[in-house]
Design brief:
The complex is a heterodimer of chains A (220) and B (337). With 220 residues, chain A is an all-alpha fold. Chain A contains 9 helices and no strands. By secondary structure, chain B is of the alpha/beta class. In chain B, helix 4 crosses helix 5 and helix 11 runs antiparallel to helix 12. Classes of the chains: A mainly alpha (220), B alpha/beta (337).
Chain lengths: 220, 337
C-alpha cells in the first residue's frame, strides 16, 4: 500500500500544484472582479448611496444567471471564451477561465451579504458627516464588512477547490481530477483515499486560516 | 439661523401614504438649544433628519444660515453637511476604526491635510475627555464614551449646527447628565446652535432654551421652556411635564383632608415665603403644606405647593382670593365638604 502511494507521489505532487494554480488564479480574478460587483449590488439598492434600479436589476440577473448554470455545463459552454482568452481549451490555465467565471458571482453575492450586515445608521452617519460616496465605500463599507469578506474569500476558495475537480473534463488536472482518474475509474481505493484525505486536509487548513484571519480583522 | 417653512414629509409604505411631518414651520435662533419633544412616531425624528437632508422633505423649504439647503445640488449639499454635525441615539461609530480614526474620518471628509487632522483630532479628544482612549475601538468603550466620540466627530469641522437624535436615550441617568453638561458647555463655548429631539422631558428641562411639542407630525405647542413648564396649554404637553414634575397627591390622602386643598405655583422671582406668611398673618386660617417642590428650569425657580387651608368657610374664600391676587396660578384641588 505504501508502495502504491510512493508510486503516485510525483503525479500527486503535480496534481497538487495544478490545483493550487487553478484555485489561486480563479480566486484572484474573482476577488478583483467580484468585490466591485458585490459592492455594486449593494450600493445600487434602494435607499443607498447609488440607488439605481436598472443597474441593480441587470447585475442581479446576470449574477443569478451564471450561478444557476451547473458548473460542468458552464465549463463546456465557456470553451469559446476560454479559447479567446488563453488561446487554448485544455490545461489548468484554460480551466481557470471557467472557474473564475463561476466564482465571480458567487463571491459577489457573499460580499453583498456581508455589506448588508452593516448597520445602516453607520452609513447614514458617514453621509451626515459630509463624506463622499467613494470615501464611504473605502472607509466605512469595506472596513466594516472586512470580517465577512475574509470569510467570503475562505468559502469561495473552498468551493473553487471542489469545482476544480471537474476541471479534468478540459484536461485541467488537479487533485480532484487525479482522484477521479486514478482512484475512481481504476478502482484504486488507496489512491482515492489518499487524495480525498489530502483534500480534507487542504480544506481544513483553508478554513482554519480563514477563520483566524476573519477573527483578527474583527473589531466588533 | 434655521428657518423651517411649511415642511411636509410623506412616506410611501406599501402604496399607502403616511404622514411623517405635516406643515411644520419653525425658526430656531443662532446659539440656542432647541428641544423637540414627542412620543415615538410623532415625526420629530423625521423633522430632524430633514434638517441635514438625510430625509428629503416632500414639500417646503429649510434654510440654514440663509442657505436654502432644500435647493442644493449633491456636491453643495455635501459641503453644507460638513457644517451640520449630527449625533445619534446608537452612536453609529465605525467599529473597524479606532476612536482617533473615527474622528479623523470627518476631517478627511472635509479634505483636511494630515497635520491638520492630527492636531484637530487631538484637540477634540481633549475637549470630550477621551485622550486616553484614542487608540481603542468602539467596542471597548462604554455608552457614554461612545457618545463622546460621536460628539467629537460631529464637531470636527466646526459646524454651525449640531443635531441630536435622541442622543441620551440609550444612556443611564448619570451618563445622560454628563453628556448633557458637555453639550451645554459646547453650546456656551462655541456658540453652536443645538437642535435636539427627545422623549425625555428631563433633557429639555436640563439644557434647552426653547422647545416644541410634536404630535402626529405637527407642532402643537412651542415656546420658551420655562413658560411651557409653567403654563402648558395642550393636554400632551401637560402629560410630558407631569413626567418631570409629579405633583399629584395620593387619592386616600386627599380624601381625608377636611379643609380646602389648593395648589399654587410660584414663578421666578416671586418670594413664595412672603406670600404664604402674609396669608397666615392676615387671615385666620391654618395652613398645612402637603406637598411642595421647587424645580429650577434654566436656573429660574418654578415652585409648586399643595396646601390645605383650614378655617371658616368665608375666611378661606377670602384667603384664596388674596393669593389669587398675588399669584396667577392657583388651583383649588378640593373644596371643603
Amino acid at each position: 500500500m505504501l508502495d502504491s502511494i510512493l508510486n503516485i507521489l510525483p503525479d500527486l505532487n503535480k496534481a497538487f500544484f495544478e490545483t493550487l494554480y487553478m484555485v489561486a488564479i480563479s480566486l484572484g480574478v474573482s476577488l478583483i472582479v467580484g468585490l466591485p460587483l458585490g459592492i455594486i449590488l449593494f450600493v445600487t439598492d434602494k435607499g443607498l448611496l447609488f440607488e439605481n434600479v436598472w443597474i441593480k436589476q441587470i447585475a442581479g440577473i446576470l449574477v443569478n444567471l451564471i450561478r444557476s448554470v451547473p458548473f460542468i455545463i458552464l465549463l463546456v459552454a465557456l470553451l469559446p471564451l476560454t479559447q479567446l482568452i488563453t488561446g487554448t481549451t485544455i490545461g489548468p490555465t484554460a480551466a481557470s477561465v471557467s472557474l473564475s467565471v463561476a466564482a465571480i458571482p458567487f463571491f459577489a453575492r457573499l460580499v453583498e451579504t456581508s455589506l448588508r450586515e452593516i448597520d445602516k445608521g453607520v452609513i447614514e452617519a458617514a453621509v451626515a458627516v459630509g463624506a463622499t460616496p467613494w470615501m464611504i465605500i473605502r472607509e466605512v463599507l469595506l472596513p466594516e464588512a472586512k470580517p465577512g469578506i475574509v470569510q467570503a474569500i475562505t468559502v469561495t476558495a473552498i468551493s473553487l477547490l471542489g469545482y476544480s475537480a471537474m476541471a479534468g473534463i478540459v484536461g485541467g488536472g488537479g487533485i480532484g481530477d487525479f482522484a477521479i482518474r486514478f482512484g475512481y475509474y481504476r478502482y484504486d481505493n488507496t489512491i482515492m483515499l489518499t487524495t480525498v484525505i489530502l483534500l480534507i486536509v487542504i480544506v481544513q487548513l483553508m478554513q482554519v486560516i480563514g477563520d483566524g484571519a476573519a477573527k483578527a480583522v474583527n473589531k466588533r | 439661523m434655521i428657518e423651517i417653512k411649511d415642511v411636509t414629509k410623506l412616506y410611501k409604505v406599501k402604496g399607502k401614504e403616511i404622514v411623517g411631518v405635516k406643515n411644520v414651520s419653525l425658526t430656531i435662533d443662532k446659539g440656542e438649544i432647541f428641544g423637540i419633544v414627542g412620543f415615538s412616531g410623532a415625526g420629530k425624528s423625521s423633522l430632524l433628519r430633514c434638517l441635514n437632508l438625510l430625509e428629503k422633505p416632500t414639500s417646503g423649504e429649510i434654510k440654514i444660515d440663509g442657505i436654502s439647503i432644500t435647493k442644493l445640488g449633491k456636491k453643495e449639499l455635501r459641503e453644507e453637511r460638513l457644517k451640520i454635525g449630527m449625533i445619534f441615539q446608537h452612536f453609529y461609530l465605525i467599529s473597524a476604526k479606532t476612536v482617533f480614526e473615527n474622528i479623523a474620518f470627518a476631517l478627511k471628509a472635509a479634505g483636511k491635510t494630515k497635520e491638520e487632522i492630527t492636531s484637530k483630532t487631538n484637540e477634540l479628544l481633549k475637549m470630550v475627555g477621551l485622550e486616553k482612549q484614542k487608540d481603542q475601538y468602539p467596542s471597548q468603550l462604554s455608552g457614554g464614551q461612545k457618545q463622546r466620540v460621536g460628539i467629537a466627530r460631529a464637531l470636527a469641522n466646526d459646524p454651525k449646527v449640531l443635531l441630536c437624535d435622541e442622543a441620551t436615550s440609550a444612556l443611564d441617568p448619570n451618563t445622560t447628565k454628563s453628556i448633557l453638561s458637555l453639550l451645554k458647555s459646547i453650546n456656551k463655548k462655541l456658540g453652536i446652535t443645538i437642535v435636539l429631539i427627545t422623549h425625555e422631558m428631563e433633557v429639555v428641562k436640563e439644557i434647552c432654551h426653547r422647545m416644541a411639542i410634536m404630535q402626529d407630525g405637527e407642532i402643537i405647542e412651542s415656546g420658551d421652556v420655562y413658560n411651557i413648564f409653567a403654563n402648558p396649554e395642550k393636554e400632551l404637553t401637560k402629560t410630558f411635564i407631569s413626567s418631570v414634575i409629579q405633583m399629584d397627591l395620593p387619592e386616600p390622602l386627599l380624601k381625608n383632608r377636611k379643609g380646602t386643598v389648593i395648589k399654587i405655583q410660584f414663578k421666578g422671582a416671586i418670594a413664595e415665603e412672603a406670600v404664604v406668611s402674609e396669608l397666615f398673618q392676615n387671615f385666620s386660617v391654618k395652613g398645612n403644606i402637603l406637598h411642595g417642590k421647587i424645580e429650577y428650569i434654566q436656573e429660574t425657580p418654578l415652585g409648586i405647593f399643595i396646601m390645605e387651608l383650614v378655617g371658616e368657610e368665608a375666611e378661606v374664600k377670602r384667603a384664596i382670593s388674596y393669593i389669587e391676587g398675588r399669584i396667577e396660578n392657583l388651583e383649588v384641588v378640593k373644596k371643603v365638604a
